[in-house]
Here is the input.
Amino acid sequence: MKTPRNGKTRELDLTKRLRRIFILSFISVLLFIVIVTLVGLYFFLNSDVVTYEDVIKDGFWIIAVFILAGVLIGTVITAGISRLVLRPSWELLTGVRRLAQGDFSARMDLGGAYEMKELASNFNDLAKELENTEILRSDFINNFSHEFKTPIVSVKGLVELLKKSSLPEKKRAEYLHIIEEELDRVSDMATNILNLSKIENQTILTDVTEFNLSEQIRTCILLLEKKWSKKDIEFKLDFKEYRCRGNEDMLKQVWLNLLDNAIKFSFDKCTISADIQETEDHISVKISDNGETIPKEEFENIFNKFYQKDKKALSEGNGIGLSIVSHIVKLHQGAVGVESKDNLTTFTVTLKKDI
Here is the structure.
């Protein structure tokens, strides 16, 4: 039974092989030059340049000059071969070792032939992707720890206050209400994380049915009535009755998250609009709100886990909703985009009709 080898053992084996290649290349070139030297000496002896008398008289020096010239030429050629062939191998080996050790900033420029440039480009793309993944992983852990710890600390502090017998009944009721809200926040976060984890690991869309999309959006608005009523927000629904094919429960999460965000970031006493448009192959839903403009440089980040652009988002959410939206839409072979200008932000979800 073979013993599995670790990374260092494999690296040493590769290093030994590269050294063997270099030595064999040097010996091969040297033998080639010696043969060429002997052949050249033979032709010289059969010409008027060098005679047999010269060889007999100064034979050692003539042969020494030919051998020395052969060694020098062989060394130069071997060095050139090692630069062209072995240098990219060494650089690739160094880059892979840096990646294996967790240094995702490793980059390489092999130059030379098209294949070498293509190999370097693919390696750099891989390293960049791993670096971005590591950054996202680190941000995910930091943000999640903060998001999960904050309500727990708040609840713990309020429980300590509730232990005081002298606490007025009005304050006690207020603190209990805050505890309830914080626990709901933790519960929602756990639910969203479980949903996101489930969606991320799902590659095949299941439970596809045909349903009334217009009615689903109206239902989602009613479910959020408590939130938009507090801000005195009105809704403008500019669509007829449309039907859609997809996972009804998943798409319901999409509209709930987009509408919830629209309510959260809208100004008080404003209007949120929802529009449905249909083409031959696609159906699109647009949800617009009147709130602060989202900078263009943040368009890509807002769909990342736990990304929150300001303190308001930090206090009212956990940065998971748009990530869930993005994954669900991708499962439906669709696309989600955002436009934001002059305090008008519009999210557009485009779905295929023939899923």
